[in-house]
Specification:
The structure holds two protein chains of two kinds.
Chain A lengths: L2 H15 L4 E16 L2 E19 L2 E7 L4 H14 L27 H4 L3 H17 L3 E17 L4 E16 L8 E8 L7 H14 L9 E7 L1 H16 L1 H6 L17 E3 L24 E5 L2 E2 L6 H6 L23 E4 L7 H6 L3 E16 L4 E14 L2 E5 L3 E6 H6 L1 E4 L4 E4 L7 E4 L2 E11 L9
Helix pairs in contact in A: 1-2, 4-5
Chain B lengths: L3 H16 L5 E17 L2 E18 L4 E6 L4 H19 L15 E5 L11 H16 L5 E19 L4 E18 L5 E6 L7 E3 L2 H7 L5 H12 L7 E7 L1 H13 L4 H4 L29 E4 L20 E6 L2 E2 L6 H6 L8 E2 L8 E2 L4 E3 L6 H6 L3 E13 L5 E13 L2 E6 L2 E6 H6 L1 E4 L6 E10 L4 E9 L2 E10 L5
Parallel strand pairs in B: 4-6, 9-16
Antiparallel strand pairs in B: 1-2, 1-5, 2-3, 5-6, 6-7, 6-8, 9-23, 10-11, 10-15, 11-12, 13-14, 16-17, 17-18, 17-19, 19-23, 20-23, 21-22
Classes of the chains: A alpha+beta, B alpha+beta.
């Protein structure tokens, strides 16, 4: 479906339902996912994801209904269900009504024909040299190549009408010492709007190189270490920060570290939410939210000072401010109902990751993190997690040898306050929870980050 | 509900696949889901949503490997086209297969499974449901500061699933899932915040059944307890750092099972199929029957027949009947959660755990009800039997490495135990360990009277992500000499 087709569907459904105050937000995505593991292409899928969420208001009583059946009759039926429920609900304090026409819709470039037209044969053909190259290196390949095209549209009875379409191509690859039993692992990944622009060969070679570098790890004692985090590791921490810090509900509950106007981290830290990035390797996501508010670039943290939080229309009305276009679907257990869509940490001036490593006398270089959790002490943004797919001891400015996976537990904001270097180059990393958005991050060097434990390399001693 | 015309369309798609000489096996799976999610926070409706999702997923095993396609349009033309797409994908992928997938044949399964529901939650009026949430929220907020926020929620899901396969399997299953709970936040003058939830953290309080499950929770009867604890935690001392005997409440044992036994015993993880999201497993096939996973009292079973469990069903999405399979027997690792293909790789039978999230995802190995078997005694008796230790309850944060070895969990609250008595409340507790070392240190598990079946409705796995309902039966248990502390990172 195109964005225009989806918008026409939203408008026609509203017209058919005939409600005085209603809103329809619809998304559609077709995904081709070639997932490989153990050196084989084991799960190759074509997935269709249709979804419409409608809201109907009777005064300040607002009900919602959802459907995966994208037809005028089916969406109108969902509107009727919401209309039936609305009078039975308590009033939503501060509900400002649905969005009017508003600002023009931003139209950053997001659509590439080659990705939209990718076939199963094309995906298999792209993966053949990947699997061969990893196999030839004596390692085991895993990962996924995905090509997708999607559309989103929103229409309200108050005159808002927006649509959007995009493509996303992403590639992630692991080169592994063993298929699933641990040992060294190297990772490579790349996202782009165009499948032809994916750096498949470069990232495969990187995964192989990092896996070989990661063999025969030493065990390192817990303690504070200077650390360089690759963009993929940094992005995971930023995603958690987004979840606990920036939304108006988190601030209202008192658990957020955001204290507007106060310095909450280091001067080198500027964090934005920018869905208008017009760059085919960094710009993803929908440039308006589920309520139809156009997303504008927002500086959340400006040189270490908390400057803004994220609102939907209702929270904004309660706070007498404007929505930031941050209403999300929150499909997974309600997580992310108000959140960032394309979080970005500003880069620094380091030319490369090697330059950051060169500034460490004794410390760690971390490629990725695993199972980060940021609910430990949210007012300080204390998080825990483990290293994955490459953790290395740095001595006298160079990678000395591989280290077994380490657990960290530290405050991200306090760690960033001790940051003295970031790369200029930034990378887009897909996120788990946001509406098809990403986190854009540089590599970051932090001083004295707390690693409070280590994992065991294997359980060989059990045998 | 599946109409006769829609059923005919499914059979037409299956016939196309049966006639295709390149297809060795195929499943056509119809899923129709209805859901209702309600949440009140601070007296305001935060979520009031009903939803539906409906379509058909088709998985095809070609000459060498698999293909999957799906469609939300349940008519013959669309289903036949989806079937052909799935077969086409399997063929396109075969060039990259170094060997053909071995998928052992099974006799066809036929029948109907339906959740036992005493009171249909979808028949309860919406205003009655909202009132059932509003009352405990008002009670939690009563008295004002330091209470900063309170919320209560409920979720109802009804799923109809029809599975037809080229082997002749034809099963119909109708599930009703529910979940409800509440939480309260407090905020101190120093900016510190605390949270207490009931019956446990949001997302793990689920069950299979009807409105009677919510009645049994008695939210109103527990508001005072969690509000008082959330207030007391603001001025409580932090859980001291050190090595301590640790007693976990049943809900935290359930999470411990989920993360450190459920996931690592998924055979697809152990064989490396889940690297692109979740990771591998330290529990490798060569360790079957040898690995001392826990102490002699640790028995953990995968049971997809437990009454009221979120992981209970009639058949999995490969047509394998539900059953009970020991995973850990007297502390020893004896079996995996498996599928037909993965079990065959170990010359075993599938333990029947393949399930898909909705119609537009292929099935994966998922936990069923992975449960710790009860032993004896009450929680009070267990605490009385503990000279010095810490009692932790209700999960707050969770993290475990990609092989499921090194874990660190924090809880909402803890109590110091001195000479067999709970003496004072402690804030921000956490504990950490290595999975087999931890389970080997388990020296007491409470009895049937303390055992409870928890349901997690948000278990994520797969790439793209799939969310699944799983269950865990657990009783409070004691673990000796565990590394405990608090979540402050200054050290």
């Amino acid at each position: 479906m195109t964005g225009e087709e989806l918008l026409a569907l939203c408008k026609d459904s509203l017209a058919r339902a005939g409600e005085a105050h209603a809103e329809v937000f619809a998304t559609w995505r077709a995904r081709g996912c070639a997932r490989f593991a153990g050196g084989e292409l084991g799960q190759h899928m074509e997935l269709e994801e249709p979804h419409a969420v409608v809201r109907v208001a009777r005064g300040a009583r607002v009900a919602e209904a959802q459907t995966t059946r994208l037809g005028v009759a089916e969406i109108a039926d969902a509107i009727a269900r919401a209309a039936k429920a609305a009078p039975l609900l308590p009033e939503t304090e501060g509900f400002p009504g649905f969005a009017p026409a508003g600002d023009p819709t931003p139209h950053p470039r997001r659509f590439q024909r080659d990705t939209a037209q990718a076939t199963p044969e094309a995906r298999a053909e792209m993966l053949a040299p990947v699997l061969a190259k990893v196999r030839a290196a004596g390692l085991v390949a895993a990962g996924m190549l995905e090509t997708s095209r999607g559309a989103a549209a929103v229409a309200t009875t108050e005159g808002c009408a927006r649509s959007h379409e995009d493509t996303i191509a992403s590639f992630k690859v692991w080169a592994l010492e063993t298929p699933g039993a641990g040992g060294a692992a190297g990772y490579g990944g790349h996202m782009h709007q165009s499948v032809s622009a994916l750096a498949v060969e470069r990232e495969t070679e990187r995964a192989i190189r990092m896996c070989k570098l990661g063999q025969n790890p030493m065990e390192l004692d817990a303690g504070r270490y200077d650390v360089v985090l690759e963009p993929a590791a940094m992005a995971e921490l930023l995603e958690w920060l987004s979840q606990i810090a920036f939304g108006a509900p988190e601030v209202e509950q008192g658990g957020s570290p955001m204290r507007l106007g106060e310095r909450i981290t280091g001067e080198s830290v500027t964090i934005t939410d920018d869905s208008t990035l017009d760059d085919p390797a960094l710009g993803f996501g929908v440039p308006f939210d589920r309520e139809g508010t156009a997303r504008r670039p927002i500086t959340l943290v400006d040189r270490g000072v908390a400057r803004a939080i994220l609102y939907d229309r209702t929270y904004a009305a309660r706070a007498s401010t404007r929505s930031t276009g941050s209403a999300q679907l929150g499909e997974v257990g309600g997580v992310g109902a108000i959140g960032a869509a394309n979080l970005a940490l500003s880069g620094g001036d380091a030319a490369s990751v090697d330059d950051l490593i060169a500034g460490i006398d004794r410390g760690l270089y971390v490629c990725r993190l695993h199972y980060v959790n940021g609910f430990l002490e949210t007012p300080r943004a204390v998080m825990t997690g483990l290293t994955r797919d490459g953790c290395f001891l740095v001595e006298r400015g160079k990678i000395a040898r591989a280290v077994g996976n380490m657990r960290f537990t530290d405050s991200l904001l306090e760690g960033l306050a001790r940051s003295d270097g970031m790369t200029k180059e930034r990378t887009a990393i897909p996120t788990w929870w946001s509406d098809g958005g990403t986190v854009v991050a540089p590599a970051v060097r932090m001083r004295g980050f707390l690693f409070n434990g280590r994992s065991q390399k294997t359980l060989e001693r059990e045998q | 509900m599946l109409s006769p015309a829609e059923e005919a369309a499914m059979r037409a798609a299956l016939d196309v696949l049966r006639r295709d000489p390149n297809v060795r096996y195929a499943e056509v799976r119809f899923v129709d889901e209805q859901n209702e999610r309600l949440q009140i926070r601070d007296g305001r409706p935060e979520t009031a949503s009903t939803g539906g999702s409906r379509g058909v997923g088709i998985r095809v095993l070609g000459q060498r490997t698999w293909g999957f396609a799906c469609t939300p349009h349940v008519n013959e033309a669309e289903l036949v086209a989806a079937a052909q797409r799935a077969a086409h994908i399997a063929k396109a992928s075969s060039a990259l297969a170094t060997s053909a997938v071995i998928f052992p044949e099974r006799p066809a399964s036929r029948g109907v499974y339906e959740t036992r529901v005493a009171k249909d939650p979808f028949a309860i009026p919406l205003d009655q449901k909202m009132a059932a949430l509003d009352a405990p929220v008002r009670e939690l907020l009563r008295g004002g500061k330091p209470v900063s926020s309170a919320a209560a929620w409920m979720e109802w899901v009804r799923v109809e699933k029809r599975l037809l396969t080229t082997e002749g399997t034809d099963t119909t299953q109708r599930f009703t899932y529910g979940g409800a709970g509440m939480m309260v936040h407090t905020l101190g003058d120093d900016g510190a915040s605390q949270r207490r939830s009931y019956p446990t953290w949001q997302g793990s309080e689920g069950f299979q059944g009807g409105w009677e499950g919510l009645d049994a929770l008695d939210l109103m009867g527990h508001t005072g307890e969690i509000r008082d604890e959330a207030i007391a935690l603001l001025t409580a001392p932090p859980c001291p750092e050190g090595t301590s005997d640790l007693v976990l409440d049943a809900s935290q044992v359930a999470l411990q099972i989920h993360e450190s036994c459920g996931h690592p015993t998924e055979l697809d993880r152990a064989l490396g199929s889940e690297i692109s999201l979740a990771g591998g497993s330290f529990m490798q096939p060569r360790m079957l029957g040898k690995l001392r996973y826990g102490s002699d009292i640790v028995d953990i079973v995968a049971d997809s027949t437990s009454e009221g469990g979120m992981g209970t069903f009639g058949w999995d999405d490969e047509g394998v009947a539900s059953g009970t399979h020991p995973l850990i027997e007297r502390g020893k690792f004896v079996d995996y959660l498996s599928s037909r293909e993965t079990a065959h790789a170990l010359a075993r039978e599938s333990t029947g755990t393949m399930r898909a999230d909705g119609w537009n995802r292929p099935p994966l190995i998922r936990m069923v009800n992975v449960s710790l078997q009860p032993k004896r005694g009450t929680l009070d008796e267990l605490i009385a039997d503990t000279k010095d230790g810490v009692f932790m309850l209700v999960d707050k944060s969770w993290s475990i490495d990609d092989l499921r070895l090194n874990f660190q969990f924090s809880c909402e609250a803890a109590w110091e135990i001195k000479n067999g008595k709970k003496t004072r409340i402690l804030r921000d507790p956490r504990y950490t360990g290595i999975t087999p070392d931890f389970w080997r240190s388990c020296d007491a598990i409470c009895g049937r009277e303390e055992w409870k079946l928890f349901g997690i409705s948000t278990c994520g796995k797969g790439d793209p992500m799939q969310i699944m309902q799983v269950g865990h039966g657990a009783a409070p248990a004691r673990f000796r000499k565990v590394s405990v502390g608090n979540t402050g990172s200054k050290g």
